[in-house]
């Protein structure tokens, strides 16, 4: 279904669905786009979903959609909305099933010439050391008590067990561990699914990529982040909370459907099932969601540890000598309780970011001290075989989008459609011609994520930069890709 409703152009990078579109809308919906990309956005029902979010009780400010917006469950992917901490709601559809799907970026002291003949061996070694694929089990088997610790402590648990460095925690959003997680709010089934999958990449759009810095736009911010020069080798890890997060979302969506009746809440779409944020149902979900977020940070921490080991095994130098330090780790699907300035003064709100990245400006509490002078690193992965970007948070984002920006390229077609359209060997050959080595656990890992299935990442970040909700720092291009 394509969008045929009103869409008013505000400026070169913003369109608005007016509040008058539906009588139940409490506010308008703003879509960050330009004349070129808005035509792609109109192809599916994501704009309608953005309007439906504007109908939810307790919304503060606008319902917002980033330039990578596309249709999702309830909320559009690329959607951002904040709800009053006292009178608002919380909705699992505003976070998604892969809770804290996110990106971890690692810098190195290596240059492209140092590894140009070793990209394939490096990817092959990581492929052996990091399990991947849908439903794949990990190398670590957790007892119930250990699983509870992971859900409570996140990446801190992994570092305490020797999987990483203390510095890794200080360079992660929330230091890799959100408070308020209560393992008692996580079902036994969710815990069981997670206990066998910790330290696995998974399938879908998840990847591990060896990259090089292709272009630096802001030398000062780049240097602050440890991105020193073009040609420098980087590593990106993109994955989330695996079956644990998916089960938590599934469990609590059932509860939320009952909450709609219990609290007499009207929603435009049943997939927007929600509860008052301060109800038992709302707080139980928030606590379980935090547990899933912590699991995802622990998951990426283990993968980072085994990636460092892989580089050491292939290159014969330890990770410290290679300068394999974290740049940052960001969440793309999460809800946070934050304090923001609004038209009615400072307010505590629950910010739902679904396919959106936090983008806090310099000197904001909550970002690493080492980045205070620059602002929070924003990590935007491209689709397989295309560029990824590092941006930095801005004051404009803080004042307009609750400190949020885009998260990736955004799909143009469903996974099923991509599988029908693209052939694995054709995609692989195309990537090889570009000098990109790819290793995948499954055929679907290639065809579902073919570059043609996504929007142009260059256009997405150009709009985010043009709108001022994050600013370009560096462009990274892939050398080798590991897929599930």
Overview of the molecule:
With 484 residues, this protein is an alpha+beta fold. It has one domain: tRNA-splicing ligase RtcB, CATH 3.90.1860.10. It is built from 17 helices and 19 strands. The strands form four sheets. Strands 7, 8, 9, 11, 15, 16, 18 and 19 form an eight-stranded mixed beta sheet that branches. The chain has a seven-stranded mixed beta sheet with strand order 1-2-3-4-5-13-12, with helices on both faces. Strands 6-10 form a two-stranded antiparallel sheet. A hairpin with a 2-residue loop joins strand 12 and strand 13. The longest helix is centred in the middle third of the chain and has 36 residues.
Notable characteristics:
single chain, 484 residues, alpha+beta, tRNA-splicing ligase RtcB, eight-stranded mixed sheet, 17 helices, 34% helix
